[in-house]
Amino acid sequence: MLSKRIIPCLDVKEGRVVKGIQFVDIRDAGDPVELAKVYDEQGADELVFLDISASHEGKKTMIDVVRSVASELAIPFTVGGGIRTLEDIKETLRNGADKVSLNSSAVQRPELITEGADYFGSQCIVVAIDARYDEPSDNWVVYTHGGRTPTEWSLTDWAQEAVRRGAGEILLTSMNKDGEKTGFDLPMLEAVQSVVSVPVIASGGAGSSEHFYDVFTKVDADAALAASIFHYKETSVGNVKRYLKDKGVPIR
Amino acid sequence: MIGVIDYGMGNLFSVSKALERLNIEYKIGDRPDQLHGCDGYILPGVGAFPDAMKALAEHQFIGFIHQKVEEGVPLYGICLGMQLLFESSEEGGWTDGLGIFPGTIRRFSGIDENGRAYKVPHMGWNQMNIRRPEKELLTDVENEYVYFVHSYAAVTEDEDILYATADYHSDVPAIVGRDHVVASQFHPEKSGRAGMQLLENFCRMMCRQ
């Protein structure tokens, strides 16, 4: 049986991890490789690096980060942020990333999903979706550009379209829950789980080990992603995994 | 010295770096003449089976691999590189493989024995069930979790070659082997401790030869 995956997410800007991660026992808290190693030692099943660089140099630096992480870690990792063309996908994967995560660029040009999947296989293509509940329509709406721009897509339509075009995994972030630490958005996840047949990574809302338990047992998410509760040491990957294992959730 | 067979379809970077971490010398070659004389070979692979067979042929590696296997040189196939060692695959219409292991490569049906749908690809960490613990390749490897990513899996009648399986709605061949030819469906270089141990054991097998 597949284990449920716990995935810390690191935001990287110009080659440095941002959001002030607080680990006392490492030399350089902004070094993506150092932090990746810490999470690896804690038992992280996978890592996601989100490049939020604005500059062209920052993008180039990200490739160096990818190479360093691939050189030193023996767990899979995904890279997202600013991947707009098949060339970007090729460059990222050839330098050692296992998957790329496409968000706004996939909404703008859905063919990108197909191009990447045809070239490398669906297993390398994650489509990241940011969605928010829209009360008037009683539906979830897909947003792009870091949640700034609403699109015409409803969540379930876009998730299905992304999978139809070759997405091997959906990374679903609830904008309603993101940063709230009140638990994952179970209804939103349920809605997507019921219409797609690929693994779904839950994101947004993790505040405690119980939240991970809920997302794995109540909606059967395949993986759960979190950033701040791990970065700010509110808990550790190891603690969450021990808690889940004790409760009988399949955990590596 | 390990020869990494580069036919344009592998994540060579990660596997090379894993070998470096283990202090194992390697070279990468995209033509047989660049790789003659190595003590062992790694056949990596990511992508579609028919494309990979075509690329192996274009790089003149098909005869080369058969020759090395006949000579008794250790070979480790990774992921698609494992699948290529079987007789054929149904991916993209039936395509012949290298035929070193008996069996075929089939797509996961996506429907379990009770008629319920399950997810394809088989993606994530799954626990191995080791069947041949006496094999040198499995020294210090236990029923650990390793990282799988695949939509097609090997199907074989030859239980002897199944060194380890994983349970994903059926027994999925995870590590296969016969004599000096071994392979894993998962990427050892992405499978944490157990994966690194397998690579190290393979090199030990190679050095002993």
TrEMBL record, chain B:
<feature type="active site">
    <location>
        <position position="187"/>
    </location>
</feature>
<feature type="active site">
    <location>
        <position position="189"/>
    </location>
</feature>
<comment type="pathway">
    <text>Amino-acid biosynthesis; L-histidine biosynthesis; L-histidine from 5-phospho-alpha-D-ribose 1-diphosphate: step 5/9.</text>
</comment>
<protein>
    <recommendedName>
        <fullName>Imidazole glycerol phosphate synthase subunit HisH</fullName>
        <ecNumber>4.3.2.10</ecNumber>
        <ecNumber>3.5.1.2</ecNumber>
    </recommendedName>
</protein>
<dbReference type="InterPro" id="IPR017926">
    <property type="entry name" value="GATASE"/>
</dbReference>
<keyword id="KW-0378">Hydrolase</keyword>
<keyword id="KW-0315">Glutamine amidotransferase</keyword>
<dbReference type="InterPro" id="IPR029062">
    <property type="entry name" value="Class_I_gatase-like"/>
</dbReference>
<keyword id="KW-0963">Cytoplasm</keyword>
<feature type="domain" description="Glutamine amidotransferase">
    <location>
        <begin position="4"/>
        <end position="203"/>
    </location>
</feature>
<keyword id="KW-0028">Amino-acid biosynthesis</keyword>
<comment type="subunit">
    <text>Heterodimer of HisH and HisF.</text>
</comment>
<keyword id="KW-0456">Lyase</keyword>
<dbReference type="InterPro" id="IPR010139">
    <property type="entry name" value="Imidazole-glycPsynth_HisH"/>
</dbReference>
<keyword id="KW-0368">Histidine biosynthesis</keyword>
<comment type="function">
    <text>IGPS catalyzes the conversion of PRFAR and glutamine to IGP, AICAR and glutamate. The HisH subunit catalyzes the hydrolysis of glutamine to glutamate and ammonia as part of the synthesis of IGP and AICAR. The resulting ammonia molecule is channeled to the active site of HisF.</text>
</comment>
<dbReference type="Pfam" id="PF00117">
    <property type="entry name" value="GATase"/>
</dbReference>
<feature type="active site" description="Nucleophile">
    <location>
        <position position="79"/>
    </location>
</feature>
